[in-house]
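seq:
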Amino acid sequence: MTRSTTRLPLALACALLTSVAGAASGTDAAPGMLGFTADHAADQRALEQRFDAALSANDQREWLKLMSSQPNQVGSPHDKANAEWMLARFKEWGWDARIETFSVLYPTPRKESLELVAPGHFKAKLFEPPVRGDSTSTVAGALPPYNVFGGDGDVTAALVYANQGMPDDYKELARRGIDVRGKIVITRYGGGWRGLKPKLAQEHGAVGCLIYSDPRDDGYGAGDSYPNGGWRPEDGVQRGSVVDMQQYPGDPLTPGVGATPDAKRLDIKDAKTVLKIPVLPISYADALPLLRALDGPMAPSGWRGGLPIAYHLGGGNAAKAHLVVESDWQRKDIYDVVAVMKGSAEPDQWILRGNHHDGWVFGAWDPLSGNVALLDEAKAIGALAKTGWRPKRTLVYASWDAEEPGLLGSTEFAEAHADELQRKAVMYINTDTNSRGFFDMGGSHSLQHVLNEVANGVDDPETHVSVRERARAKMRIDGSADKAKPEEKEFAKLAAKGGDLPIGALGSGSDYSAFLQHLGIASLNLGFSGEEDQGGVYHSRYDSFDHYVRFGDPDFAYGVALSKVAGHTMLRMADADVLPMRFSDFSDTLARYVANLHESIDGMRKDTVSQHQLIDAKAYALVSDPTRPVGAPTRDSEVPVIDLAALDAATKRLTQSAQAFESAYDARVAGGFKTTPAQQSAIDVAMARMEQALTDPDGLPGRSWYKHMIYAPGLLTGYDAKTVPGVREAVEQRRWDEANRYAAITARVVNAYRMQLDRLTTLMKQ
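struct:
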């Protein structure tokens, strides 16, 4: 999973960090700890200090070097060797560990070629050569650059440049009279998840899709190219999955069930998430001759990249390409490493932690930087256990396989163990890539407060304020930028108030998806980023150990910081007197989401002319390219009344119930939380299942695998989240009946959540 990186203006960053450092120094010497009595909170802090002492940046460095020393893609010998090596380490550290194997569809390239056949001739290299100073770039065994789960094909057709291949780009082409039917579309990375690019090309009638990395975005336009700097060299290629994960992640042939040997499987032709047209990722060196050959209108200014050419759209028959993709459509075994430390008091309450271990080639940054942090936590917890300590609740650590092709390892595990997980799992913590910079946190809002408490107790390695306060400074600066998104502005306002930082909603792109959005298990996704130069080698051969120790996290200080944040959270969830979950944070966040829905609908009603359509044909003609076709203004359909009354009422009642629970919770902890084991178990079970109440068994419209009614990846955003998705996406796509139907469904779900919270409050008072 990739992360956005924003560099702060130095003077402003220093000023804000000085102010937050001053604020932090004024906090109580021994603040309260959610879920713990005062005495137990002191014991917990001592335990966390012992945990921290067992962490090792040097171990993380050596493990990363070992695990990224050979190609690490699914099906490679080194991927399996890494799983077996981790299994031995978990056992050495005192965990009850196993490898759980699944059999999944995983096509690999059998034949790939790309040629420009007119005008002139050019044959694409489709290869990443060795780079000076990168010791693994000469290692054999890597698969060539490819996009897994694209279709097979042998096509010769005219080329069309479609910018980033997003919906608005196709509208722009249509307005200029350019039809992509029967053509090969060439798009650049950015603007949305890569899998949407060939999916939309296919839906618009294209017969093939090429995706290239433009140097303006992550090559020499961003900084010096590797090896002189960290950014993408001219032959670097971003591999990646193009499986239609917005339908469902995991093995395309076993939706909803674990891919065990005896599982019933679909025929490949019936798998909804596998595309039909050939897709190929290429470097900007290979893209340059293709783009240079295009004729037709000039591309709009925002579509022009950093190559030394005039960017044209094509669309005629002057530029033609021959694209061949042929794959070996076999199943392969994948290896999830699962380690368990049984709880001493409540063994059937599971606290889960995961990171994946497969990469596209060597995968030093993505994913092994996060995986070695997870291993360091497991080693430190094992050291605590050897002194006689045992967690109160069961800890489960997992290193997933096959995340890169579409979250396969975690999804198959979650589907295979769905019933048990929904009975026992309390929460899941995910990490993926990690590097130096600012703390990123997203997830279930019932976990917002405990995560803030943990983050406020971990020092940032560079500034020595807490990682929470450094994140606050970044949030405020991001929200003040001229081009700040609405959510960034909102978060900046909340951050400026002090106290807890808001956490973002989760969409998709990493292994939390099956736990949160399919099973309804409260989840977090954590990591550090923002000061690395890693984005230019994302999913390429050059995501290597040598690159990471120069441009990622050279001294692994942020690897240790990640281990502290994730490890402390795991330990608190495991040992708390009562689970440290606060539901008022969710009710407050839901109220913001619903208010935003009202604003969106009101905005559509006030302006029935879409921002992407013509406002006045004559005025438009005066300011547009005179060669551009100008049609009559087209108005959107009128926006009818969307009945949100039931959702408004449910949200308001939930706020009241959350306040009542919080009062009962605080009173119980203040009284020492004296309870019988049976009462303790009943309360924990009820709290752990709160998130499941936010799911609906029928799921979201057209994609029933996604059952969470508050958080989901957007159909047309990919990784990015849509909140209250059943209603919001129906409104955005102008499906008014569906919007009203899902407003009622979501209200019903919120009411069920509120009633479960009321029952929990009653338990807390007994």
